[in-house]
Design brief:
The complex is a heterodimer of chains A (about 350) and B (about 220). Chain A has helices at about 15-25, 60-65, 65-85, 100, 105, 125-130, 175-185, 205-215, 265-275, 290-300, 315-325, 325-340, 345-355, and strands at about 5-10, 35-40, 55, 90-95, 110-115, 140, 160, 190-195, 225, 245, 260-265, 280, 305. Chain A is of the alpha/beta class and about 350 residues long. Classes of the chains: A alpha/beta (about 350), B alpha/beta (about 220).
């Protein structure tokens, strides 16, 4: 069988969302696809664990240079990668399709372009980016559980193939509670809280984590695990007895997690809600385009999580009062089961591979 | 209201004017890049004392260490502040293999990836690796306009004498032995760099040299 080359391209973002969605799609590819990942995230070596070859192109933030100069650099470098790898399809996950990416057809006239366009944009932003949608052969919109709270520019558009929420793992990929507890270094017979606030809050992660960890460790019998993102620039010191883990994907171990405190980014939100973990969501408002606050509000309204505006004294107290209580968690777990949707990664990948059919050729 | 403020307000308010102004700035930036001026603001490491236009004066040195192990690379990164100081100040671009990307990144140093021969041969003709390496390094020279490119070989033992009494001096010596690719900035190039810095402000460094919180507007 002739293999076809699909290049998955991610912008860097503040966390792992772009890269993780692409990995979720790539791991559901058929045998006719030879994948290649090009990313602006320094976390890209993680894709090697999925057996994917990869290449890193530095982002503007990683270089520290001006946006216009970076666009020039990126366009030249990406064209070089395209000429070398000659993909049949380029799948981009990001909110800003760069000029260099859109110019792919001037390098490879027969290449097909796909935009994995996450919804939930901050209201009032992104019209310019959205205008580039017509340059793509296919726009895939990873599903958004909180879609009813979406007031961004993509809401109500009909130009995308909407799929279910895209997460890296399906339920059956999660390891047992005993195995997960062993990986997290906790006792499977005691409740465990996971604190995963993401790299985006690294500026104040010590104070946020410190407050919430102090609150959670005051709950008798509760074990606390804090994730240390692999791309974090700094690690905060953790109190004694609190486990720090750097596991990717941490979702593989969610069966040992009874409650969580997490940022409301696409990835962690859909993993935690999708795998049924009662969670207090803390919206990161420093993102460029992601309306995390709306996601957290939806979770609260749907009864599947808490919307914790800030991890101040009152916020931490809410987490402790409402999530440390087993009865409250059980109620939330029932609501979580009711909103569950199947993983959309496979459907998205099928749509991408549909472009490889001769009938779909340009 | 001053004239520049009025002009900025005019550009901000009118989408068409903003678009044309953007294109004009793009053209200027392309012109400056074509004139051989390194990108203003390029990261100089978390230890760098300089910022603003003074940062742009520091020469750029590309260190090729794609065959280094993670531990060797961590040791090298640890030495870089002293190497920079002893060499009179410079900005480093580390060329590393894929898995090592985070090591230099955490130190606020620019990192580039070069596929190793094994990674390369998974998708391409193994005999083509040498040509690939050349093709990969050439754009780096065009992008960064480095003062020197230093190939540090296979690791500490070869690229840098781990047993040397003073590995920093050893590395500084290797830097000085590498052929010089460019003269210090001319007054004209310095003026161009300042103009580009004004028109296309560099990204602000985040905590410990990492990324800054993103502004909604790019």
């Amino acid at each position: 069988m002739n293999t076809r080359d699909v290049m998955y391209v991610s912008s860097n973002g503040l966390g792992m969302g772009h890269l993780t969605r692409l990995m979720a799609m790539a791991r559901r590819r058929t045998s006719r696809v030879r994948p290649y990942v090009v990313s602006m995230s320094r976390a890209v070596p993680l894709v090697a664990d999925e057996g994917l070859d990869f290449e890193y192109l530095p982002s503007r933030d990683d270089l520290g240079i001006g946006s216009r100069r970076w666009r020039l650099v990126f366009a030249q470098r990406f064209a070089q990668v395209l000429r070398r790898e000659r993909p049949d399809v380029v799948v981009f996950d990001g909110v800003y399709p760069y000029d260099g990416l859109l110019a792919a057809r001037t390098v490879l006239p027969r290449v097909r372009l796909v935009w994995s366009r996450r919804a939930m944009w901050l209201p009032g932003l992104g019209r310019r980016q959205l205008a580039t949608s017509s340059a793509f052969d296919l726009v895939v919109e990873p599903g958004e559980l909180a879609a009813s709270f979406d007031q961004g520019a993509t809401a109500g558009r009909t130009d995308a193939v909407r799929v279910g929420p895209v997460t890296l793992l399906d339920d059956e990929d999660l390891v047992s509670r005993a195995q997960a507890a062993a990986a997290l270094g906790v006792d499977p017979d005691r409740p465990t809280a996971l604190v995963t606030l993401g790299v985006g809050r690294i500026n104040d992660v010590e104070s946020d984590v410190g407050r919430v960890v102090r609150g959670l460790t005051s709950v008798p019998g509760l074990q606390v695990v804090v994730t240390r993102p692999s791309i974090a620039a700094a690690d905060g010191a953790l109190p004694p007895g609190v486990r720090g883990v750097s596991l990717y994907p941490v979702s593989r171990y969610l069966r040992a997690v009874d409650l969580a405190v997490a940022a409301a980014g696409y990835n962690s939100f859909h993993e935690l809600v999708g795998h049924g973990v009662p969670t207090a969501f803390v919206a990161n408002t420093a993102t460029g385009m992601d309306d995390q606050a709306a996601r957290a509000r939806w979770a609260q309204a749907a009864g599947v999580g808490l919307d914790v505006g800030a991890l101040d004294g009152a916020g931490v107290q809410r987490v402790v009062d409402e999530l440390a209580d087993p009865a409250g968690r059980a109620q939330m777990a029932a609501a979580l089961a009711a909103v569950h949707q199947p993983n959309g990664a496979g459907v998205a990948q099928s749509a991408i591979e549909g472009l490889l059919d001769p009938a779909a050729g340009p | 209201m001053t004239l520049p403020t009025r002009l900025a307000e005019l550009v901000r308010r009118h989408p068409r004017v903003r678009e044309y102004a953007g294109r004009a700035v793009d053209a200027v930036v392309a012109l400056v890049a074509g004139a051989g001026v390194s990108p203003p603001g390029l990261r100089a490491g978390t230890w760098a004392a300089r910022s603003g236009p003074a940062l742009d004066e520091l020469p750029i040195v590309v260190l090729e260490c794609a065959r280094w192990s993670q531990s060797d690379l961590a040791a090298l990164v640890h030495l870089l502040p002293r190497v920079s100081a002893d060499a009179g100040g410079c900005r480093f671009v580390l060329v590393v293999a894929g898995p090592q990307l985070a090591v230099g990144g955490r130190a606020g140093v620019v990192v580039e990836q070069l596929l190793g021969p094994q990674e390369w041969s998974r998708r391409h003709d193994p005999d083509g690796w040498g040509a690939y390496r050349e093709q990969q390094l050439a754009p780096l020279v065009r992008t960064y306009r480095p003062a020197r490119v230093v190939n540090l070989g296979e690791g500490l033992g070869e690229g840098l004498d781990a047993g040397a009494a003073d590995p920093v001096a050893d590395l500084v010596a290797r830097l000085r032995q590498a052929p010089s690719l460019r003269a210090p900035l001319s007054p004209w190039q310095r003026a161009l760099a300042r103009a580009e810095r004004l028109l296309d402000p560099p990204a602000r460094p985040g905590p410990r040299g990492g990324r800054a919180a993103r502004s909604p507007r790019r």
